Amino acid sequence: MITIYHVPNSRSLRVVWLMEELGEDYRLETMAIPLPEDFKRVNPLGCVPAIDDDGIVMFESLAILQYLTGRRIPASLSITTGPNPDPAAYAEHLQFLHFGEADLATPMGTIFRTRILSGERSNATIADQLALLERRLVFLDEHFADGREWVTGDKFTIADISIGYAFVLAEFTRLEIALPKRVAAYRERLQARPAFRQAAAR
User: Fold this and answer.
1) 92 and 181 belong to one structural domain
2) Is 34 left (phi over 0), alpha (psi -120 to 50) or beta?
């Protein structure tokens, strides 16, 4: 059984959400910040998420999503592009899988940490990251203009889990960003999923 090392509202939510979508059993090791020093025996970087899959230990949330879905074919086919996807579909899937972290969660985290460390609500770094986020959200909103339900079309995938966590982070850090109309509707669809609700309650 997979053990997930988890801190609520952190990136480990992505992994718990995935396991709930797959309907598989898992064991949760829930911790709080600051993490205990002995956790470094699991992840030398001292951060979550990390998993132990019967002796296979790894970290990095998006890598874990790809690993778990790759290991669980065909059970995971419903939330990935499959083992031999069309190249264009696979490219789009990977692009938005990483978009959720690189283009959304990372600038959100930068704003949060800058405010904590500087004690300032606004400075040049924060303004720059907020402007970047606004552009990224406009791009995402335009991406949904064709009426698609999920980020890669009519099928929910781990790319949606990646992006969905960014919305959780924005709420947790009380980030003052207004979601464009289509993006706000997308967030509501994500957070209405039973698997998300189960994961968020853990």
Assistant:
1) yes
2) beta
SS (H, E, C) 126-142: HHHHHHHHHHHHHHHHH
pLDDT, tens only, 145-184: 999 999 999 999 999 999 999 999 999 999 999 999 999 9
The helix/strand/coil state of 94 is helix
Among 51, 79, 107, which residue terminates a domain?
79
Number of structural domains, the chain?
2
Are 181 and 95 within one domain? Answer: yes
First vs last C-alpha separation in the chain: 17
Which residues in the chain belong to E strands, given as ranges?
2-6, 26-30, 50-53, 56-59
- Contact assessment for residue 136 and residue 103, using Cβ atoms and an 8 Å cutoff: yes
Q: Do the domain assignments include residue 140?
A: yes
The domain of 73 spans: 2-79
What is the value of pTM for the model shown?
Answer: 0.95
Q: What CATH number does residue 41 fall under? A: 3.40.30.10
Contact 143, 163 (CB under 8 A): no
| SS3 state of residue 98 | helix
Tens of pLDDT, residues 76-113? 777 887 667 889 989 999 999 999 999 999 999 999 99
Q: What are the φ/ψ torsions at residue 168 (nearest 5 degrees)?
A: -65, -45
